[in-house]
Amino acid sequence: MAEDEQMVAAMEAAGLIFIGPCSRTVRQAGLKDEAKRTALRVGVSVTPGIDNGTTLTLLKKHPDRAALESVVAEHEVGVSAQ
């Protein structure tokens, strides 16, 4: 949960004390799955594990085609349909 910048920011805005990095630190650290993909692409060894966390989160939040198409349109993401 500490890697969810929006959750940490919401807790901070609500005046709750979060035991972990502040939302600014989480944002500056970036996404671990993106960093892992970059490391793999350039040949740096990484700890085995899930490297598609962003994809899994997106599919959990938008579980069907209509929901995915809606978010793609909302954010003007360029994708090719297959």
Counting DSSP E segments of at least 2 residues, the number of strands comes to 0
* Secondary structure: helix percent: 40-55%
- The overall average pLDDT, rounded, is 82
Summarize the main sheet: none
Instruction: Tell me what portion of residues adopts beta-strand conformation.
Output: under 5%
Instruction: Work out the radius of gyration.
Output: 16 Å
Distance between the termini: 33 Å
Count, helices: 5
The computed structural class is mainly alpha
Low-confidence stretches: none
Describe what this molecule looks like in 3D.
The chain has 82 residues and is mainly α. Helix content is 55%, strand content 0%. The chain has five helices and no strands. It is flat. It starts with a helix and ends in an 8-residue tail after the last helix. The mean pLDDT is 82.
Topology:
Layout: H1 5-13, H2 23-29, H3 32-41, H4 53-61, H5 65-74
Task: Give a short synopsis of this structure.
The protein is mainly α and 82 residues long.
Which descriptors apply to this entry?
single chain; 82 residues; mainly alpha; 5 helices; 55% helix; 0% strand
